[in-house]
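Sequence in, structure out. First:
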Amino acid sequence: MSEQGRPPDAPDPGSEQGINLPGFRDVQLEFAAHIRNPSQNPKPADVDERRMRVYRELVYNNIEGFVAGAFPIAKKLLSPETGTPSEQETGNSPWHRLVREFVHQHASTSPYFLEVSQEFLEFLGQTERPDLPPFLLELCHYEWVELALRVDEQDIPSRVLREGVSIPIDAGGDLLDQVPIVSPLAKCLAYNFAVHQVRGDRPLASVEPAATFLVVYRDPEDAVRFLETNAMTALLLELLDGERTGRQALRELAGKISGPDLDAAASETRIAKVLEQGSQTLSRLRDRSIIVGALAAQA
């Protein structure tokens, strides 16, 4: 015996480690390719078809379930069936063809199932599909924002951090002369279609282009709601950056919408009108918890 306790002429066990690795890797690649798209990629020859079908349906139905849960209206528009489809049914509707294409082609950057919906949205944004409704990407984005707000672990804030100091937000503060604070659970969205009006039973041809501005938000009861608004309110919310007072934001808004040909008197008239209407808008936004209150203006 050698000093390692092995006969000197015995083969080294470590010398054969990995000898089957290339072949096993090939089988893995065949296996994964077949699961991603069984119509284009044959299954590994030595895998039983019955067992292979279990893997195919398990992987596809799990991914499709996560996507359908995030985009229920999109699914209903593109697929009339309900329930879990059989393997034969997954190629028979635009919805399942789209999900199959996602499974086959998209290289996900996240390994987490909970982020499948975000990956699907990214896939849609990279996909040119003239056979699908032109508003599909915007509809899916709108549905995804609703989902993201629903699962967001943040609460509507009652304080903000300024230079390391926690400052309370005054829920009844002066929205003109103090600094309005927009809820982090409010998202301002602009679309080319009125996607918030799309329903699963609505004819696709009836959805026509229309410039649409929405604020999607979560209220204090954790219900996700939307407010249909306009370009001016969307710009106002963008100007409310946590630094400007409401008055400063509205005066800047008035400057953006005033033409360069206005004289000083006309410009001041425009500013006064914007301040009057804007003050009412700020109050309505606070009533919906889109604005959560105000802070004293910094010197």
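Second:
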Amino acid sequence: MNSENSVKTRKLVLLAVLTAVIVVLQVITQFIKPGFFPITLSLTPIIVGAALCGAGAGAFLGFVFSVMVLLDPATGAFLAVSITGTVVTVLAKGTLAGLVSGLVYRLLEKKNEYVAAISAGIVSPLVNTGVFFIGCLLFFADYCVTVGESLGFTGNAFYMIATVFIGANFFIELAVNVVLSGVIVVLVKNGRRILKLEK
């Protein structure tokens, strides 16, 4: 087996491991719900995969995360309103979060790995939450207002989505990613050594 094939094999193994980590994290977070949905802890392994294997790998890992979100019981309420809207929103938010965070990391890593990790850690939940917000406005505005009112909130769809459906989750996810940015750098450095990748 030549060196190039060996690196490809190691990358495939790494993606398989990160895929398993994402699945486990999504199962664990079913029990951590500060708001309407569980918090997302899977963005960190997505960023690590994107940093080591490229933005395409980040998109793949984001897609895996999205599939797990589709299987989440909390997603069932959205599926009951619009199957198409739910599938499009959920698949787009995770996949784009992985893709964009990978692109941001690649763009900044040569200047400073910590800046790259922090930036990718900020961009990932921004994209994930931003696409979810847009999807809610496009497909579920009336549903979000109805749910918000049933919980005692008053306001338009924009307000209901931001407070009831997103709420504290976004800030927790953002804080986790920023705090773990140093860990991401260490994991990427060690991953490069194990994969024998040139920086």
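Remark: DSSP finds nine helices and no strands in the chain.
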